[in-house]
Amino acid sequence: MSWSESLIKLATYEVENRQLRLAEIAKRLADANTRLAVLIAEGEAEAKHAGQNAEAGWYLAGYAEGLKIRKAALKAEIDAIAAEERGARDALAQAFEEQKKYEQVAESARLAEVKEASRRENAELDEVGMRAARRASGNAA
User: Do the beta carbons of residue 16 and residue 91 sit within 8 Å?
Assistant: First the structure.
C-alpha cells in the first residue's frame, strides 16, 4: 500500500467517524425536540383539564410554573446540542476537505507516473527507430 493510499484510508476513516458522531448528535437533538413537544402537549392537556375541573384549576399555576422551568431547561439543552451539531458539521466538512486533498495528491502522483512511463516508452521507441535507421543506412553503404 502506498503512502497516498494510507493517507486516503486514514482520511476516509476520519470522515466515517465524524459522520457517526454527527448522526449521534442529530439523534440526541431529535430526542430533545420530541421531549419538548411532549412537554408542550402535557401543558396544553393540563390547562384543558383545569378548565373543566375547578379543583385542578387550583394547581394549574404551580404546574404551569414548573412546566415553564422544565421547558426552559430543555430549550437550553436543545440550544447546546444544536451548537454541538454545528461544530460536528464543520468538523465533518473539514474532514471531507482533507480527504479530497489526499485524493487529489494521489491522482496527481498517478498521472505523473503515467506521463513518465509514456515518456520512457517514447524514448525507447525513438532509440529503436534510430538504431533501425542506422542499420538501414549502414546496409545501404
Answer: no
Give the C-alpha separation, 108 to 102, whole Å.
10
User: What is the three-class DSSP state of 81?
Assistant: helix
Condensed to tens digits (0 to 9), the pLDDT of residues 105-128 reads 888 988 999 999 999 999 898 888
The pTM (predicted TM-score) of the whole model is: 0.71
DSSP, collapsed to helix, strand or coil, labels residue 2 as coil
Q: Residue 2 CB: number of other CB atoms within 10 A?
A: 10
Decide: 54 and 15 in contact? Cβ < 8 Å.
no
Distance CA 124, CA 81 (A): 64
- Say how far apart CA 133 and CA 141 lie, in whole Å: 13
**DSSP 8-state symbol, 141:** -
